[in-house]
Design brief:
This protein has helices at about 20-30, 50-55, 80-95, 100-110, 115-120, 135-150, 175-185, 205-230, 235-240, and strands spanning about 10, 15, 65-70, 125, 130-135, 165. The chain is mainly alpha-helical and about 240 residues long. It folds into two domains: about 1-30 and about 200-243, no CATH class; about 50-170, Growth Hormone, Chain: A. Helix 1 runs parallel beside helix 8 and helix 3 (about 80-95) runs antiparallel to helix 4. GO terms for molecular function: cytokine activity; kinase activity.
Length: about 240
Amino acid sequence: MNFCHGAHCMIWGTCYMTRGPALVLLLLLFLNKPCLGCNFNYSPLSSTFEVKIAELLKYLPRDYTVSVISNLKPDAHCSDLWMIYFIRKELVRIEGLSGEKLKEQVMFVRREVEFINTECHFNVSEDCRMEKKNVTDFLNMMSLTMNFMRTNNKIKNDFSNCTRIFCEKGASVNDTTQQRKHGATFDYPKDEPTGEGHNSRDHTLPILTSIVSVLILCIVLFVTKMLCNRNTRRPEDLAERQE
């Protein structure tokens, strides 16, 4: 009985995958273990960030409002790093709206958390919502979060599993769209029948192409892994880059 059908073809008595499924497999292999980074074997937090935060407060009006994440999902390992991500994002916004003198002070503070942008690549949940806070509360929260991360060198850790930021849905969020997504049906193209009279040698070139693609992918994944292992920068290198 010939079990080679649909997504496969027969070549000299051996069943092989045709080009379409092979390319899908290559894509899945490539996306399986990306170089996520966010792994610190040193502390990227300086010992002067509190001084810079206090200095920035002198230049900001006390009633100045900023945006703060409001529904971050509690996570013992990731939540504080996620908070630093949103803090840095808001500092970038403030810096872009500031005059020359204030912009300089915001930049000094923003550089203290710039590592979150250079070392980590986040994917933020669509459920995340922001709320308005006083800038004093915002900077106090920043100081507390960074101090906590420095305690017992908590920042010196592997956060590669934290690159997906999760937020909690509020009770008022409409779930209709999400339900439609889960209830959706899709029409997939049916496999074309392949008769036994089909000349299997016609498939030789696509199969060879797929094999060469696999070999190239293996080389790319190996090089990517080597680069990932060197992804963590030393503090002095990061400081030199920021200057």
